[in-house]
Amino acid sequence: MNANFVAVIFARVVAAYPICDSLVKFRSANQLTLFDRPSKPGMTGYSLTHLKQLEAESIHIIREVAAEFENPVMLYSIGKDSACMVRLAQKAFYPAKPPFPLMHVDTTWKFKDMYDLRDNYVAKELGLKLIVHVNEDGVRQGINPITHGSKKHTDVMKTEGLKQALNKYRFDAAFGGARRDEEKSRAKERVFSFRDEFHRWDPKNQRPELWSLYNTKVNKGESIRVFPISNWTELDVWQYIHLENIPIVPLYFAKERPIVYRDGTMIMVDDHRLPLKPGEQPEMRRVRFRTLGCYPLSGAVDSNATTLPEIIQEMLLTTFSERQGRLIDSDEAGSMEKKKKEGYF
């Protein structure tokens, strides 16, 4: 089918249906837009940039889940990928609010700045329904990343906590912010990732995905993990945050912060729970975080990037992986794939 013909038909649809046109008009107030208006009077063509193509694909996936599943949920980890996911969900159903809740599986060890953004921006300013789930069994056992190590802490507070929440609320689909460029096990996972009744992932038994066609069939007790931004890169995420002016955790920007060195990784001293080793003294260093998790397990990087354009420039020049500072990725060989098989995000 001729591309110009498709563009003309779409332009007529937008003109005929005010609800479509509202997506364009929404841009002036909130910078939330799907398409660029023709630049000259009388023009009927629409031009989709690279980011808008990614956005359109993600919105299609989100709407597909809302239409096909009975009880979906969007997992919200407070990071930059989650920030993009929330904005995409807003766009997908504007002017209504997303027809599913957000859910944060809280390990109780996130950075203080992360909790501030979650409670003040998502819950209060956006007014979205937010479920916060904590594995109380793990809390009673005193599980933490310092004395029990990253593997035990992740298994109990994240993986088991997530499975508890999915079972408790009977969610049959869960959106996640994983991207294929992050890590090798995520690179081979489908957009619609099937999980059995125990929330386990079998990488050898994945469903084919042809073009934008997805198999949403699940039996009772089974579920799907859905990754709308699978095809995005870290650079795409930062460019989208800049384009949409999305609020993010201040830790992504460079600032003087108290740092200690642990096994070659710079760990920020965020509160009194991080015990100092004999002779260890925090030093102030200008750093930022490329990825955020539990603060004793998240390594900082040296940086002078204090604005979004500077972060984007840094991304264009870096030769290191985004997840180089995530200690949970190096528990053992193939640790991320093993975690996902057990039910991890």
Topology:
Layout: H1 3-16, H2 18-25, H3 27-30, H4 50-68, E1 72-75, H5 80-93, E2 102-105, H6 112-125, E3 130-133, H7 136-141, H8 149-169, E4 173-175, H9 184-187, E5 192-195, E6 223-226, H10 234-244, E7 255-262, E8 265-268, E9 283-288, E10 299-302, H11 308-317, H12 335-342
Parallel strand pairs: 1-2, 1-4, 2-3, 4-6
Antiparallel strand pairs: 5-6, 7-8, 7-9, 8-10, 9-10
Helix pairs in contact: 1-2, 4-5, 5-10, 10-11
Protein name: Sulfate adenylyltransferase subunit 2
Pathway: Sulfur metabolism; hydrogen sulfide biosynthesis; sulfite from sulfate: step 1/3
EC number: 2.7.7.4
Strands of the biggest beta sheet: in what spatial order?
3-2-1-4-6-5
Class by alpha and beta content: alpha/beta
Q: In sequence order, what are the helices and strands, one letter per element?
A: HHHHEHEHEHHEHEEHEEEEHH
- Look at the structure and name the CATH superfamily of the largest domain: HUPs
Q: What is the mean pLDDT?
A: 85
Protein name: Sulfate adenylyltransferase subunit 2
Domain Phosphoadenosine phosphosulphate reductase: 71-299
Keywords: ATP-binding, Nucleotide-binding, Nucleotidyltransferase, Transferase
Enzyme class: transferase
